């Protein structure tokens, strides 16, 4: 039995009741009318003629073609769509792993990346090095491998730290997995929101055995569509994933598929828009944290729109986050949400989101709360 999903349980209490959502993991979304304004003629015709019947389990063919165009080595037949990234993670881990298998999982991470493998296999955690800007330690991953290791699971840009490894380190990890016959499962949902560096090559483009995960929710800022996908050049694995999907969502929402198609055809516009929002927000966060150097250690994300600052206050990060949301209505995610059964995650951190427009009011309220308490 899977444990409670700590993040979602916490969000069930606070996400829609707190006045200021300062820990959002997605880029700023946009109204339906604005998305439809981006539609080309084909997208508009599809939207207006859409009938609300069942859809293909693997996804709308035109959508899969557009998804494939976001990769270098992927064709439409290498793509399988899911109801968001969570369904894809759940089914992939249960298809790829079984009793007697071993997996290596990077921490800190999105909880499902850890708890779902733990429910079916042996798992070793390897932590990003917090003392070195959350650097990826390929030596530690290599040391954790066993003869039964089936899978290495990573997430870059990382949630919650915003870390992005340098290209040479990333290529070394891909090659290590290939040399050992291990599947690299690469969660790439924040790819495209890097400000000062190019995006890493996607795992599936680098290795025919790798599995790349993406979704419309994070970098594209369209979580309400609930459209995610796996790209993989192993047709037998995709067949197994399709059969597993028959037991969950079966197929995706037709309207969501058309809207995702429209968005992906305008992906350059959407990603540039969302990078501009992040870039505009970072100075506001710099200024806020700069006012309280005795309380915080902060660096903006290397990629994506979340990061994991350190809280230095004597009351501790759990109390700070709890009191801040109850007294001032500003929502953050404390370190306990990212506590791992596999490694030590620093207990003085909290997740903050920099991808939503207009954080200044929330930061002003937080400033006032800090100065009067």
Automatic annotation (TrEMBL):
<dbReference type="InterPro" id="IPR015424">
    <property type="entry name" value="PyrdxlP-dep_Trfase"/>
</dbReference>
<protein>
    <submittedName>
        <fullName>Aspartate/methionine/tyrosine aminotransferase</fullName>
    </submittedName>
</protein>
<keyword id="KW-0808">Transferase</keyword>
<keyword id="KW-0032">Aminotransferase</keyword>
<feature type="domain" description="Aminotransferase class I/classII large">
    <location>
        <begin position="53"/>
        <end position="354"/>
    </location>
</feature>
<dbReference type="GO" id="GO:0008483">
    <property type="term" value="F:transaminase activity"/>
</dbReference>
<dbReference type="Pfam" id="PF00155">
    <property type="entry name" value="Aminotran_1_2"/>
</dbReference>
<dbReference type="InterPro" id="IPR015422">
    <property type="entry name" value="PyrdxlP-dep_Trfase_small"/>
</dbReference>
<dbReference type="InterPro" id="IPR015421">
    <property type="entry name" value="PyrdxlP-dep_Trfase_major"/>
</dbReference>
<dbReference type="GO" id="GO:0030170">
    <property type="term" value="F:pyridoxal phosphate binding"/>
</dbReference>
<dbReference type="InterPro" id="IPR004839">
    <property type="entry name" value="Aminotransferase_I/II_large"/>
</dbReference>
